[in-house]
Design goal:
Beta-Lactamase; 3 domains; five-stranded parallel sheet; about 15% strand
């Protein structure tokens, strides 16, 4: 029991508490609460590994409980999943702003709750392991910003972006460039193979990915408190800590990041075409290889059948010559039948030559495709 992660589940409906407890009890030590205040009192005595919060509750609602947890130093890193029947973008944004890591809508499936709980704990562990590295990277980025002009950061990005050939390379460059402004961000590309998500703190937050997918269709630049989304048809960049308290700096950063977005979009189109071209090239190469294998097999069969055919033809010609002489035909009749036989054999040889020509045409076609 002591080795199981501790989960606090808060819901003003006792039935919901019972359901969550039963679904998670095999893998987790679950403690349920009917009110947010009760949960907060217990959290101070025994810090859980994961919080499951209903949103609409009397007294303190889920958002308020989350904010209080996030403002307490000893509890601010606890992963929090909202479990609510509220499903609008505004509800998710409110949960995200309060500090939630994920959002699960009611009614939910058993495996969905279990997977999200396990994912939240795994992300929390990874985040703790990387916290020292992230802190060093952040300090380095701030120091670099003091020595680099804001315009220079964007120009350097635009130059380096031309060398990117993969989505992951471009995402790392975006995160690095935005990090030089002292900002953290998330990047999501919308590709033919599905969304690809990258985060500056190396943590996967499902609620963040979902919001980015919803926001990208609203407007090109969308601001929610100190978070700003820069979106295009194929990309969404979430800047998480725009300094809204400094209006002048905030305005400059938005201008710089809007230019960065244009640079990203300019790079995405040729990158997508190049990736598709390489994919087609690989498909053609595989097809050529398969055709070549088949041609080798066909050539072997043709040689075998040609040899068999020649044997049969030779035997038949010998038999016909003997048979014609034994029929007692006139000389001109024998010559006539002999000519017919030799004409037919010549046609057969011509057919074999045509097959060789067809094989050569296929070989030439494969050579052209391989170029």
């Amino acid at each position: 029991m002591q080795n199981k992660p501790l989960v606090f589940a808060v819901d003003d409906d006792p039935l919901n508490c019972e359901i969550m407890s039963e679904l998670l009890e095999d893998d987790f030590q679950v403690t349920t609460f009917l009110a947010g205040s009760e949960c907060l009192e217990s959290v101070e005595r025994n810090t859980p590994d994961l919080l499951l919060l209903d949103v609409g509750m009397p007294g303190l609602n889920g958002y308020e409980v989350c904010k209080l947890v996030r403002t307490t130093e000893s509890m601010r890193d606890i992963p929090i999943i909202f479990v609510s029947a509220l499903t609008t973008l505004e509800d998710r944004m409110e949960g995200y702003e309060a500090g939630g890591d994920d959002y699960l809508t009611k009614p939910f499936k058993e495996e969905e709750l279990l997977v999200k709980a396990q994912l939240a704990l795994r992300n929390s562990r990874n985040s703790k392991e990387l916290k020292g590295q992230v802190s060093i990277a952040s300090n380095t980025a701030l120091l670099a910003m003091t020595n680099t002009a804001e315009q220079g950061v964007i120009l350097e990005f635009l130059s380096d972006a031309f060398n990117c050939t993969q989505y992951s390379e471009l995402a790392e460059l975006i995160i690095k460039s935005i990090g030089q402004f002292g900002l953290s961000c998330g990047v999501q590309f919308f590709t033919a193979d599905g969304p690809m998500y990258f985060n500056s703190d190396h943590t996967d937050r499902p609620i963040e990915r979902e919001i980015m997918q919803m926001v990208k269709n609203i407007s090109r630049i969308h601001t929610f408190r100190n978070r700003t989304f820069f979106s295009g048809p194929d990309v969404c960049i979430l800047v998480k800590n725009i300094p809204v308290e400094n209006e002048e700096l905030c305005g400059r950063l938005r201008d710089h990041l809007a230019l960065l977005l244009k640079g990203v979009e300019s790079k995405l189109k040729p990158m997508r075409l190049e990736i598709e071209s390489k994919r087609r090239e690989n498909t053609i190469r595989k097809a050529c290889s398969k055709i070549q294998e088949n041609l080798v097999f066909i050539e072997m069969l043709i040689k075998e059948e040609r040899n068999n055919g020649l044997k049969v033809l030779t035997t038949m010609l010998d038999s016909l010559d003997e048979g014609i002489h034994s029929l007692g035909l006139e000389r001109d009749q024998e010559e006539h039948f002999t000519q017919l036989i030799h004409h037919s054999s010549d046609d057969l040889f011509t057919m074999h030559e045509n097959i060789d020509q067809i094989r050569n045409i296929f070989s030439e076609t494969i050579s052209v495709l391989k170029q």
